[in-house]
Amino acid sequence: YITRDINKSIYYYLLAANQNHPNSQFNLGLIYEEGKYIARNIDKAIHYYSLAANQNHRSAQFILGAIYYFGEYITQDINKAVKYFTLAAKQNLSKAQFFLGFIYYNGEKVRKNVNIGIYWIMESVENKNIDAFFFTGFLYHEGKNVEKDIKKSIHYYKEASSFNNQYAKNNLGILYKHGIDNVIEKNVAYATIYFEEAIKQKNDRVSMYNLSHL
Q: Radius of gyration (Cα) for the chain, nearest Å?
């Protein structure tokens, strides 16, 4: 309704942020992190995200976790990443639960704890996280640290596929391409459909190969 004025926006967000308004603090963090309308300033971004995170703003906690996890702008710090992912995960933020589970499951610069990893991944599943659906399907598919269960694997792959996860579609295609005795019948038509969906929606190269091979 009016012309964008990022300086005025920052001015009013600052007024609110200085009165401990967490959403204003979070939005300031976004502005300084994205560097879309002004020059990126990761130190200011972390400062305002931290203010919001200290007031239990779960998205701020997650983004801080991601900043420290990926180490794109600052030195990677897995301990801080785990700290902030944990805070957000305990507030049922599904993507934080998945990242936390993934870190513990793989022992990524922390002491590996498969049970804690699977716990947080399943919590993420309960909160409908697409990546968690796929990862859980993969665990049951391969029988990694859980009892192999192709029916459960297909269930979770289909959940991920319904959100257009190309990896889940490809793996469903593989399962139907080959079939598994007494568990799932070979079905070339289903395999073709899943490969084609992965290609159409995400231009997935692995599915291109599998479809060509089929």
A: 21
d(CA 128, CA 147): 22
> Looking at residue 136, what is its pLDDT?
97
d(CA 123, CA 121): 5
DSSP letter assigned to residue 78: H
98-115 pLDDT tens trace: 999 999 999 988 999 999
- Contact (Cβ atoms closer than 8 angstroms) between residue 172 and residue 157: yes
Rounded CA separation 152/147 (Å): 10
Confidence tier at 3 by pLDDT (50, 70, 90)? very high
Written as six digits, the tokens of 15 are: 């007024």
Cβ-proximal residues to 151 (8 Å cutoff; 6+ apart), any chain: 183, 184
- For 2, 25, 124, 194, the CA distances from 97, given in Å and listed in that order, are 39, 23, 5, 28
Q: Of 126, 135, 137, 133, whose CA–CA distance to 93 is shortest?
A: 126
What span, in angstroms and rounded, lies between the C-alpha atoms of 172 and 37? Answer: 42
